């Protein structure tokens, strides 16, 4: 089993993917870059690194493989362990291994692991479809020199109605140079606008995958807690300003409305601002940890939930 394929799939969604007994692949988001020497623009991307000290099984990779292969969690753990043994054997024999889509791993003279990432794959979902491009260089200094030469050799002087004289050629040349300066200054904003437009397309594609994931999800509660009834004094409730909450952290989607209600009550008891949605088109009842106005707020809350509550918690982008 080539587990690097599943590692790559998880790197689109998570900042850290641990391979039990081997190490962890980490990602860091890099903003758009400009190489001034070549006038090249590069879209935002995720930089991949490797930490050989993070080896404990957090369940993320094994759960993903078990779900994708439609097998048990125990079988997935065994498959990962077998692949890790194969990697270590290859490193000892050849000194290097190549992981498709991730990069190369080799041993140095001190038997320490050295990782060289693959720069051809961008794991930042919001940059999907964006590629580097080169902007033509505008050399306005050359045009300025030509204008000066023309002005010196063929001056065109006239007098206006007030009797004031001026050089018409230099007047229009100055306007031309100013236009060149403005054209050069809008190059980068045009590139940024291209990124924003394509980002909207990517979010729509990711949203379709999220809907498919909800359709496949099935959750069960072995020992559900009794339902909790909450009473609200309508006289004390104020009408706050309506806010658009488009980013939601999913706790689960249940085929049974009763199970969804029990999960919702438990999240409320645990201190979350949980929400329970009505039945969707897939016949499921989604339950949310909470909803947020911005992606930054949702990602911050998601990290806390993944650390302490649910490593599989993910973000749904939709206006509810």
Describe it.
The chain is α+β, with helices and mostly antiparallel strands and 320 residues long. The chain has 3 domains: 4-124, no CATH class; 138-185; 234-317, Sporulation related repeat (Alpha-Beta Plaits), CATH 3.30.70.1070. The protein is built from 8 helices and 15 strands. It is flat and about 90 Å long. Residues 156-161, 218-222 and 234-238 have low confidence and may be disordered.
Number of domains: 3
Question: Order of helices and strands, N to C?
Answer: HEEEEEHHEEEEHEEHHEHEEHE
- Mean pLDDT over the full residue set: 75
Q: Low-confidence spans: pLDDT under 50, at least 5 residues?
A: 156-161, 218-222, 234-238
Total number of helices = 8
How many DSSP-defined strands?
A: 15
Largest sheet: 4 strands, antiparallel
Whole-angstrom Rg: 29 Å
> Helicity, in percent?
40-55%
Tertiary shape: flat
What is the topology, as strand order, of the major beta sheet? 13-14-12-15
Strand content: 15-25%
Measured distance between first and last alpha carbons: 40 Å
């Amino acid at each position: 089993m080539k587990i690097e394929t599943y590692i790559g799939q998880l790197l689109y969604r998570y900042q850290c993917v641990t391979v039990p007994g081997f190490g962890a692949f980490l990602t860091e988001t890099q903003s758009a870059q400009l190489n001034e020497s070549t006038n090249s623009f590069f879209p935002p991307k995720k930089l991949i690194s490797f930490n050989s000290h993070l080896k404990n099984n957090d369940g993320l990779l094994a759960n993903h493989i078990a779900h994708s292969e439609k097998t048990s969690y125990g079988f997935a753990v065994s498959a990962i362990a077998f692949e890790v043994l194969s990697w270590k054997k290859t490193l000892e024999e050849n000194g290097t291994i190549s992981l498709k889509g991730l990069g190369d791993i080799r041993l140095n003279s001190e038997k320490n692991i050295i990782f060289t990432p693959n720069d051809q794959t961008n794991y930042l979902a919001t940059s999907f479809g964006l590629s580097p491009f080169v902007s033509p260089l505008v050399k306005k200094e050359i045009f300025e020199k030509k204008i000066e030469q023309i002005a010196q050799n063929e001056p065109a002087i006239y007098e206006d109605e007030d009797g004031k004289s001026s050089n018409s050629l230099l007047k229009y040349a100055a306007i031309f140079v100013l236009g060149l300066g403005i054209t050069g200054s809008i190059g980068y904003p045009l590139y940024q606008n291209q990124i924003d437009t394509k980002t909207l397309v990517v979010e729509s594609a990711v949203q379709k995958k999220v809907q498919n994931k909800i359709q496949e999800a099935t959750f069960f509660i072995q020992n559900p807690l009794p339902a909790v009834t909450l009473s609200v004094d309508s006289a004390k409730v104020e009408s706050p300003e309506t806010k658009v909450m488009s980013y939601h952290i999913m706790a689960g989607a249940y085929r049974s409305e009763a199970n969804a209600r029990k999960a919702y009550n438990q999240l409320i008891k645990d201190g979350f601002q949980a929400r329970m949605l009505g039945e969707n088109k897939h016949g499921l009842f989604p339950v949310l940890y909470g909803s947020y106005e911005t992606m930054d707020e949702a990602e911050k809350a998601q990290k806390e939930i993944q650390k302490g509550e649910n490593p599989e918690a993910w973000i749904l982008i939709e206006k509810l």
